[in-house]
Design brief:
It is a single chain. By secondary structure, the protein is of the alpha+beta class. It has one domain: Alpha-Beta Plaits (2-Layer Sandwich), CATH 3.30.70. Helices cover 26% and strands 38% of the residues. It has two helices and five strands. It has a five-stranded mixed sheet, with helices on one face. A hairpin with a 5-residue loop joins strand 2 and strand 3. The longest helix has 13 residues. The protein is globular. The N and C termini lie far apart (26 Å).
Length: 91
């Protein structure tokens, strides 16, 4: 199982990005979480198969209809994910 941490930049808060990400990650069978950051970005931890993660990262570039993603940072991590894919409080 692969784990990556994404930091998503652009107009990604106030556009239902977290709810969209939960649906998309769940549909792909990924575990992890998504949360807003106080700096205006969205952060997501994805855990699952390499192909499913790559597909989710590609989808994150588009996001929900009102989003305007300008950059995504991707880095590997060993952070624990827990069960399913959930929203976490703003950090």
């Amino acid at each position: 199982m692969q784990k990556v941490l994404l930091r998503i930049y652009g107009r990604v808060q106030g556009v239902c990005y977290r709810a969209w990400a939960i649906g998309e990650a769940t549909r792909r069978g990924l575990a992890g979480w998504v949360r807003n950051r106080r700096d205006g970005t969205v952060e997501a931890l994805l855990a699952g198969g390499e192909d499913a993660i790559a597909d989710m990262v590609r989808a994150c570039w588009e996001g929900p209809p009102a989003a305007d993603v300008t950059e995504i940072e991707v880095r590997t991590t060993n952070e624990e994910t827990g069960e399913g894919f959930t929203a976490r409080p703003t950090a």
